[in-house]
Design goal:
single chain; 142 residues; two-stranded antiparallel ribbon; 42% helix; globular
Length: 142
């Protein structure tokens, strides 16, 4: 049985299937009892070491900001998108605690802070990137 985060309304990602038994229409989003995460391009994945967590988190930040956005983005401004990011953030942190038991066993209590550290760094990087004008971030060799 899946546990719900008590303070968060559940809003699935756009395009994610919604169970017909547990869904109902409210506002611009479908409500559902589950959050689904789709892993794409899994063949390009590789194991990352957390011996140096700051390096591992930086690699994750690079990956999440440089890949196609199949998830909400931290610097959205519209109310609906902001709400979606807030739900994604809370659900990610709740789920990360659940699935990171092995990391906590291996690296100790400090591993508990890594999910929030990652989210905070992602939000910081997204804010930095939002300051660039379209095309300003692109560098061409010459």
């Amino acid at each position: 049985m899946s546990q719900k985060h008590p303070s968060v309304k559940e809003i699935p990602f756009p395009g994610a299937p919604v169970s017909k038994l547990s869904s109902r229409r409210e506002g611009p989003f479908h409500k559902a009892s589950r959050t689904r995460l789709y892993v794409l391009d899994f063949g390009k994945a590789s194991l990352r070491s957390f011996e140096r967590p700051e390096d591992a988190i930086q690699q994750l930040i690079t990956a999440v900001t440089c890949n196609d956005p199949y998830f909400p983005y931290p610097t959205v401004t519209s109310e609906g998108c902001r709400q979606l990011w807030d739900v994604f953030r809370a659900t990610y942190l709740h789920s990360a605690h659940t699935v990171s038991k092995n990391l906590r066993q291996r690296y100790g209590k400090c591993a508990r802070t890594w999910p929030i550290w990652f989210i905070n760094q992602w939000e910081k990087k997204a804010e930095e990137l939002s300051q660039w004008e379209d095309g300003d971030l692109i560098g061409f060799g010459g």
